[in-house]
Amino acid sequence: MDRRHFIALGGLGLGAGCARKERQAGPAAAEGVEARSYARVVQHSPAGYPVVHDRMTFVEQFKYEHWEAGRDWKDDCQLWSDFSYRWGQITLPIQRRPMRVLDGLYLLGPEDYHQCIYLWDTGKGLLLIDPSYERFRPMIETQIRQLGFHPGQVRWVLLTHMHGDHIESAGAYAERGSAVFIHRDDAGAVRGGKAMAAARIAKPVERPEVFGDGDRLDFGGVEMTVIQTPGHTPGSSCFALDWMTNRVLISGDVVLHFGRHAWMGADYCDWDQYLESLWKLYRYPGAENWEVLLPGHGTLDLDGARDSLYKVIQVVSYIIRLRRAGSEIDWADPYELFWRQKMGEKLDLEPLETAT
Ligand SMILES: [Zn+2]
Predict the structure, then answer these.
(1) Cα-to-centroid distance, 276 and ligand 1 (Å)
(2) Using omega within 30 degrees of 0 as the cis cutoff, is the peptide bond preceding 151 cis?
């Protein structure tokens, strides 16, 4: 560890929006819930949009803003050490969970982990999105109770795709009577069929509700349109909806904050198909109005969802170019990439128009 690079986090507050007032319309989801739930902590991304950071991305942005040219991006031991100490003292402006994202919409899951599990109070039952690992389930159910609800009120479970870190505990909710929704091309994994790499469910769901591209789903009046976006998995899907005054994209692993892209390490992952799916989203009618991005991992965007989407296209194009030139690269950290560009390095981040 290089002590010269010690960074005092004294003034650490990203952007100017730490104390930004909330502007959400509509009534609180349930009487007394507000007092028992953690308020969201809003900051601003380098692109100027309000975000709710997870720990890892918070540190990434700090490095993006403070690392000088030539410094090793991974030289962040001291930063993490200091950061973790302050995290323990609860003196850093980072989200705690459960957290209210919008009226009626909550983020659940372990505080110190990047998995995003959403709970939607539709008024006619609860919608749980990507309930994640079986080992998280006791915590998720505790958080549901903490918010003034009961796990038995989960009427629907929506799965963005078949990977175990999203679906593993879905069977337990099905056993209690929840309807489990997944794209038909990924449904084999929840039925417990021959598991594909990284697709794993603790208890099979015999009869999942399957949907396809363009379908409208209605969860107690919360209506959304399915946009099939294959590449990461065959049935990976995003969901576009309006919620009160917010235009929302639920994006699973397809689009993540500030250009973070899907893991593409399995045989069935297809880079060209993925790029095609990203353009499909970018050109989707009304996409220019998307504000809130609810991804399967990491930071949530409260505005500028399409900016993050554009950055994913840039990063994926960068990777595809290198792969076509013979590289085996399958991951690029967007904050590092955009930092290198900011520092003057010539990187080809021009979006590739077509997949082939
Ligand atoms: Zn995944």
Answers:
(1) 17
(2) no
Q: How far is the CA of 269 from the centre of ligand 1 (A)?
A: 10
Exposed / middle / buried, residue 206 (Cβ in 10 Å: 0-12, 13-18, 19+): exposed
What's the pLDDT tens digit per position in 127-137?
999 999 999 99
In what helix (H) or strand (E) does residue 326 lie, and over which residues does it extend?
Answer: none
pLDDT of residue 198: 64
The rounded Å distance from CA 288 to ligand 1 centre is 25
pLDDT at 87: 87
**pLDDT at res. 7:** 34
Cα(297) to ligand 1 centroid in Å equals 9
- Do 156 and 179 form a contact (C-beta atoms < 8 A)? yes
Distance 160 CA to ligand 1 centre (A): 9
Tell me the whole-structure pTM to 2 decimals. 0.89
pLDDT tens, position by position, 154-206:
999 999 999 999 999 999 999 999 999 999 999 999 998 765 556 789 999 99
> How many whole angstroms from 128 Cα to the centroid of ligand 1?
17
Q: How far is the CA of 198 from the centre of ligand 1 (A)?
A: 8
User: What gap in Å lies between CA 198 and CA 115, rounded to an integer?
Assistant: 15
Task: For residue 303, give Cα distances in angstroms to 22, 50, 130, 164, 327.
Answer: 13, 6, 22, 29, 35
72-129 per-position pLDDT tens digit: 999 999 999 999 999 888 888 787 899 999 999 999 999 878 899 999 999 999 999 9
Question: 337 Cβ partners below 8 Å, 6+ apart?
Answer: 259, 315, 318, 347, 349
Is 3-342 a CATH 1.10.10.10 domain?
no
Helix (H, G, I), strand (E, B) or coil at 104: coil
DSSP H or E stretch at residue 206: none
Reply yes or no on whether the pLDDT at 251 is more than 60. Answer: yes
Residue 248 and residue 120 in contact, taking contact as beta carbons nearer than 8 Å: no
Q: Domain coordinates of the chain in residue numbers?
A: 3-342
CA distance 294 to 17: 20
Expressed in angstroms and rounded, the spacing between residue 217 Cα and the centre of ligand 1 is 21
